[in-house]
TrEMBL record:
Stated name of the protein: Olfactory receptor 10A7
GO molecular function, one term: olfactory receptor activity
Predominant place of localization: membrane
Record-annotated membrane-spanning stretches: 40-58, 70-89
Lineage: Eukaryota, Metazoa, Chordata, Craniata, Vertebrata
Signal peptide: 1-16
Amino acid sequence: VLVIFTPFCLILVSYACITSSILKISSAEGRHKTFSTCSSHLTVVMLYNASGTLIYLQPKSSNSQDTKKVLALICTTIIPTLNPLIYSLRNKEAK
């Protein structure tokens, strides 16, 4: 539980600080650009933490091998594949 929730809580605290800093930006365009950058990163972090949490905190009775395999696939393959995809789409040259 500590391995999953400690980093997750630290990420939430850091994003709360980032959000308060973003809200202090005077231009609406600057706030929008910053929020869009942070939201893509936060989405990947949430997917990673959700799949990791489901893998480790699933009750033994509902613990089927197929569910474990799908969650492990998401955690080890799909999410790391999403990172370069998301950040390359944010790049103007890649568009």
